Structure formats: C-alpha cells, structure tokens
Amino acid sequence: MNNIIPSANYYETYIYLCLFIVLFTFIHALILKISDTKNIIYINTVGYFLLFFFIILIGQREITSRYGFGDTANYYKAFKAFSLGEPIKDARDLGWDLFMKISATIVTAHTFFTICAFLYIYPMYKISKQLFQEYWYYCFFAFIISFSFYTYGVNGVRNGVAASLFLWGLAYRKNKVIMALFFIWGAMFHKTIMLPILAYLITYIYNNPKFYLKGWLICIPLSLAMGSFWISLFAGLGFDGRLSGYLAGGAGGGVPRFRWDFLFYSFFAVFAGWYYIYKKKFKDNFYNQLLNTYLICNGFWVLVIRANFSNRFAYLSWFMMAIVIFYPLLKQPLFKNHHLMLAKILVAYSSFTFLMYFVYYG
Predict the structure, then answer these.
(1) Which residues contact 67 (CB under 8 A, 6 or more apart)?
(2) Is residue 359 part of a domain?
C-alpha cells in the first residue's frame, strides 16, 4: 500500500478520507430517513469499504519508515530477530511474544502487521454489528474517526490490539466462557488491559452510574491537588516495569502540565452518558456497564494525568468512547429528527480528531 500512498501522506490520507465520509454521511442524514433503503445500502457499502481499506492501509504500511509510524520499526526489529531464531527472553507479555514468535516462523513481516491490523479493526466491526445490526456502520465509523484510532493502529500496536480483544469479548457477553477467553487473550497481549477488565467486572457488583459519575468528577480536584501523590502511589503498586517507569517519570521535578484539552475530550463521553441516562431517561443495563467501565478507567487516568506517557493510560478508556457515545442513539430514537441528530453528533465527535490534526499537525 505504501507504493500507492507515500508513507509521508498516510495520516493525511486517513484524515481527509474520514472528513469526506463524515460530510457525505451528514448529507445523507439531511435528505434520507435512517431506515430508508438507499441509506441502508450506503452505510453498508461505505462501512465494508472502510473495514477492508483500513485493514490493508494500516497492515501494509512501510515498516521501516520514520513517517509517523512510531514503534512500528521496533516491532519489526523484534519480529526480524524472532524470524532468525532468537528465543523469547522476557515473559511479561507472553501472549504477544508467542504470537510474534509463531508469526515470524510462518509469515512475512507485512503479513504479520496485516494480521495485527485485522485484530485491531475487526473487533470494532464485530461489536458494532452484534449490537446495532443494520445500523452498525455509525458506531464502527465512530471507532474509525476516534482521536486515538490511527495512533494505536501504527504506533501502540500491542495496546490497540489488546483493547480491541476486550471489545471482541464484550460482543460475546452472553457467553461468559468465550468472553473470558477474549479477556484473557487481551491481557496476555498487554497487561494494562486488566484495568478495563476489572472495571467491567466491578459493574456486575455495583452498576449505578450516578456513583461512578460523582467519582469521576472527584478525580479532577484530587488530581489537581495531589497529582504527584497518585502518580507515586500507582507507580509502586506492582505494575509492569515499563508502565511503572511511565508513571514515575511524572512524579519528580519536571512534571508535565495538566492536560485540560484531553480532559475536555474525555468529557464528551461523560456528558453523553449523563445526558442519555438522566435527561433522556435511557434505560439499558449493559449501557450502564459500558459507561461505568469508561468512568472507572478514565478516572484512573485523570488521577495520573501529569505522568509522562499518560496517554497510554488514557487509551484504556478512550478506546470505548465511540460505543459510549453512540450506543443509546442506535438503540432507540431519542430525538425528533433522530437521523439528523445522529449525524450532527458524528460530526461533533469527529471534530476533535480533525481539530487536533489541523491545529497541531496540519
């Protein structure tokens, strides 16, 4: 794919393609009802195009390029070492290392990264299709245009795949054995995914959104007043050594600034959940679980928001934002002109991704 699209233009291609589809989807909402046959044909056609296109685009990227692909080169270095017979030396994330080791013996590096892209993107389709049937496109596209989507497809690959395996597990929530297997698979790829797993399990014990919403709000002044304390506390709780290092890095003298911009972004899902449940009276036990899982994970990130690389912890909640925001909209009509409002929210949700590109990277 890098022969067709230059590596330097990959992110730009992603941004402008998504911008075009957002606008085209909005135009459809202006003139068609959501259940109109023409709209169903459109969303299925575009949805499957995006599914296959981004698996290939991300999977077939130039693996030695320096153009915004982050840790791709490091993954390739490890893959190449395994292909030459190097043994697994570190069993901290044994599932991932075994996956890479086995792949290195039977497939090429580009095929390996394409498999990773499939494991990253397909679960987003799977849970969207399972929950929303013919309207799956809207949630799936929201996943695609999320601020963190591209980064964790080409840079934090292992984190992204582990989070998607969690989503895949949720698609089988009625079959607890299969769900547990996906959760274990995700945790074996990246231990940090234990946070959303534990948060989700907690919601089986207590699932009142009001409690978790208040808890999330309390995390903000606690972080402002005692940020270094929380960073030091969590750094000493036995995390993976690398992650303890990420946390401890912000506990010393040169503390990064409080990321109000990212807190504002996180608030989108918090406000949406509050609005749907308490203003629109949306009642759905599974949605409460999704929202509460998000609130627990994002609250943890708020406490350590000043830590170096805190975006790695932010992703443990951000990967759920699309489903938290769009689930109620795709389960029942909440507004008078529901399709148009759905499209407006899609535009608003994608705006942060586009804004960050045009302001910081454009």
Answers:
(1) 7, 8, 10
(2) no
Question: Are the C-beta atoms of residues 5 and 57 closer than 8 Å to each other?
Answer: yes
3-state secondary structure of 190: coil
Residue 255 DSSP SS3: coil
Number of domains in the chain: 2
Q: How many CA atoms lie within 13 A of 209 on its CB side?
A: 23
Q: Quick check: is 343 in a domain?
A: no
Asked whether residue 350 is domain-assigned, the answer is no
In a shared domain, residues 123 and 255: no
Per residue in 139-181, pLDDT tens? 999 999 999 999 899 988 999 999 999 999 999 999 999 999 9
pTM above 0.85, yes or no: yes
Full residue range of the structural domain in which residue 248 is found: 193-331
Task: Using alpha carbons, list the distances in angstroms from residue 17 to 24, 93, 167, 357.
Answer: 11, 35, 25, 13
Residue 340 covered by a domain: no
Same-domain status, 293 and 178: no
Q: Which residues contact 309 (CB under 8 A, 6 or more apart)?
A: 246, 249
And the tokens for 244? 């303890």
Residue 123 structure tokens: 């679960």
